[in-house]
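Before surveying the methods themselves, we first show a specimen of the format, giving the amino acid sequence and backbone structure tokens:

:::
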Amino acid sequence: MWRRPFVRLQDVVIRWKPLAIGLGSALAFLLVFCLAPVKAVSYTVDEKYQTTETYYVSELYTREEPYVETEPYTDIETYYEKEPYEEAVPIDYVVTGEEGYNYFGGGGFYVRVYIKNTDVIGGDFTVLFDLTLHGGAKTTESKTKYIAAGKEEKLTISYHGAALSFFTYSVTPPVKTVTAYRTVEKTREVINYRPVIKYREITEYRCVPQEMTVCKTRPVTRWKRVSMLEYLRSY
């Protein structure tokens, strides 16, 4: 009759113990590999934030603009013009000669002047003689005579009672009325023009900066830990 061999439980445990340890270790590794977050990985998310933005708007405004305009004005102007007037002037003549002689014996003398009228009109010529006598005494004598236009005459005086040392004379010719011209300063009102700076209002547009608060999103990098299985499968 066959008998089943008797195996002790203690022997079985001892025989399967290494296998159980191996399987447990493999199971633990598998659990860690599949479930434990051991790998750090980055990922991106959109983050909302507020910021201030500058924008420009067209604004209407007025300003004063200078411009130049020609403006008339009244001024006093000085000017000169020739003005006729009547003037008495000596007629034209020339002295063509002069002489003086003492009489024999020294009891007297005569002196003479020759005058030629070179003008177009005649007149009375007067000669004033300044006489210096021997001894230093002085006296004057005059002689007047009509001389026609273009003619020559001699004007003579005689003196008795002393001899002549020397003499001088001066001629006073007749005068005539002529029309002469003189420069006269006058004034008058005139219209002149001058540039004047004026101002006018003009309307223009300008860009004015404005600010406003806006909401925006931006990518942000973050980190998380995943299991090795998820890392190999997704990254």
